[in-house]
Amino acid sequence: NKDLVVFVRKARMISKTNLNSNKVMGPGSVIIPRLGQRRYPKWIVPFLARVQALLNIRKQWQEVIARLDRMDINSQNAPLIPVVRSKLITMPWRGDLLGFTQAPGLKTCDIACVLDSTGLNDLAMNALVSIINSEIPGYKRTYVADSYFADRLARARRDSDEYKPLAIPDVAEIDSRVKSGSLSTLFIPVHGNNHWTVICLNLLKMEFWYANSLTAKPIVPVHVVDALQWWVSSHFADKVPVRVPPPFAIPRQRDAFSCGIVVASVIRHAALGQPKWKPQTSEYHAMSWFVQLSDDYPAIEVSRSFLFTIQTSHACCFVARLHSPLRS
User: Which long-range contacts (CB under 8 A, 24 or more apart) does 190-197 make?
Assistant: First the structure.
């Protein structure tokens, strides 16, 4: 948060100084139309951008807290709500998320989407995938691909008529599992049109099923099916999997943001026999995933989190006055 401290000091300097001073403006300046014809130093542009980013993060966490306040305190939720509240206090609102080497680049603010209404992003989904893969015993010969797997195959399909196993670095691990016979069931999260769905591919039976929590009769994206069949045929002498119905009823979401949690829970149910997601248990599932994602955070982070809230409150007061389109 050192950079934010510097920015807050600059904000205070602006509020106390004659803004038309050449000393403050430096060699160049910008005009903020909402405040008339006053000219501001050019560093105000990245300043506003950084503060706006912090405002967006704060808004996301505020929504998480608001949803937590609205949650039904039933027998399932009651034990988890105080745990989640504790996590919200002890975990800094931004920065790298500890404990997830399998999901590089994951930030603490990325897991806010597990509890807010924006829906999972790819980083958060892949963190859930890493949890599920760590829970699957080796004898099951089951694996969950990351959310980029289908798109990687589709791009490779467009670029070449023939797939060469092990040629794509990010697919090579799964290729190796197929060649060694250690993979029989592959789950593939699919992210398109701001919605999550999942394909389950059975390589022994040469069949796949598709789950979409929005409809009982989902249509699998054509480019995904083509790429998947192309990939499988390269491993199994031109055999292609056929589509079959899911082995259980796919739950239906009643909101616009639970699809990612539904997909993760469907995979967990199919692979490990865990309880299925239901609209009545949506809050419980979301909180359970959040607690697992934030499991590695120590309590010493509380002071940093508290400092962050104080710092953003100072910066937000300034941005409330200055935030508007800029022109040079």
Answer: 190/147, 190/150, 190/221, 190/224, 191/122, 191/125, 191/147, 192/221, 194/119, 195/259, 196/119, 196/120, 196/125, 196/259, 196/260, 196/262, 196/263, 197/259, 197/263
Reported pTM: 0.79
Rounded CA separation 13/9 (Å): 6
Scan for tokens 């995904």, then name that residue.
Answer: 224
What average pLDDT is seen over the chain?
81
How far is CA 182 from each of CA 57, 152, 174, 275, 299, rounded to the nearest angstrom?
42, 22, 10, 26, 40
The larger pLDDT score, comparing residue 42 to residue 283, is at 283
pLDDT at 220 over 60: yes
Place of tokens 């080796």: 138
